[in-house]
Amino acid sequence: MRRLTRRLLAEAWSGLRIMLICTVLLGIAYPLVVLGIGQFALPEQATGSLLRDEAGAVRGSSLIGQDFADADGDPLPQYFQPRPSAAGYDAAASLGSNLGSESAALAAQIEERRTQLAAFNGVAPEAVPPDALTASGSGLDPHISPAYARLQAARVAETRGLSLDEVERLVERCTSGPDLGLWGEARVNVVELNLALDGRVAARAPRRSAAPTPKRPPARSSRSVASEPGLLTNVNGWVEWFSQVHRPARDHRRSSPCP
């Protein structure tokens, strides 16, 4: 009986040692090594690809789009608008429309969007590009085509009191080409473009006290609302939360084509 008890205790101790070793290696050492590699090799990506304004406040992420609309959900004319989103640009609920190419509901949505965008931008319906009419698969894509950005340039310039040539030059500088010159297509990051546009307007305007950054953003929201000109709000609160709990030693900003 004693021999059996000693054997059981020995086996239990062996199992406990394996569990402790695996806990230290896989639960502590491995995550710390991966974190260290990320902070050393890809610090900007490892911290969420955060975008900050001139005051250093986090205004979003270059990886996640925002819905530039007012509290009623109406698009703000002073901002470039992103693609439609089935997820409402909620970073916690990425999804597509799940509508097939032969779906009558999808066809109706496209025609409705075409009419609304043509009226909003003062162009002919046939001038609206396809990416302005269809949602991305993730519902979080921050990019639009250069054609869609150029289509909106006149509206943004008129609303902000800028020249069309100046806005178009900014769009050109914020346009990224295919990855490595081979993969993908030319694209414009709407969040970066609007942030650069706000910075340009703020530089011209008289200096005023900065709008306070919310200390505790809403836990969940279906859209990120730019509540006033010159101010981009956070993406559903998660970006600001992440920047507070995981602040890097240095301010790593994305190398963006935008000025």
Describe the structure.
- 42% of the residues lie in helices and 5% in strands.
- It is built from seven helices and five strands, in the order ααββαβααββαα.
- Strand 1 and strand 2 form a beta hairpin.
- Helix 4 (146-160) runs antiparallel to helix 5.
- Mean pLDDT is 81; it is low at 206-236 and 248-257.
In short:
This protein has 259 residues and is mainly alpha-helical. The chain is 42% helix and 5% strand.
Radius of gyration: 24 Å
Count of discrete alpha- or pi-helical segments spanning 4 or more residues: 7
Give, in spatial order, the strands making up the sheet with the most strands.
3-5-4
User: What proportion strand?
Assistant: 5-15%
Instruction: Give the averaged pLDDT, no decimals.
Output: 81
Count of the domains: 2
Distance between the termini: 79 Å
Pairing-aware structural class of the strands and helices?
Answer: mainly alpha
- Tally of strands: 5
The biggest beta sheet is recorded as: 3 strands, antiparallel
Order of helices and strands: HHEEHEHHEEHH
- Low-confidence parts: 206-236, 248-257
Shape: elongated
Keywords: ATP-binding, Cell membrane, Ion transport, Membrane, Nucleotide-binding, Potassium, Potassium transport, Transmembrane, Transmembrane helix, Transport
Membrane topology: Single-pass membrane protein
InterPro entries: KdpC
Subcellular location: Cell membrane
Element layout with pairings:
Layout: H1 2-41, H2 43-46, E1 50-52, E2 58-61, H3 104-121, E3 143-144, H4 146-160, H5 164-173, E4 175-176, E5 187-189, H6 190-204, H7 238-245
Antiparallel strand pairs: 1-2, 3-5, 4-5
Helix pairs in contact: 4-5
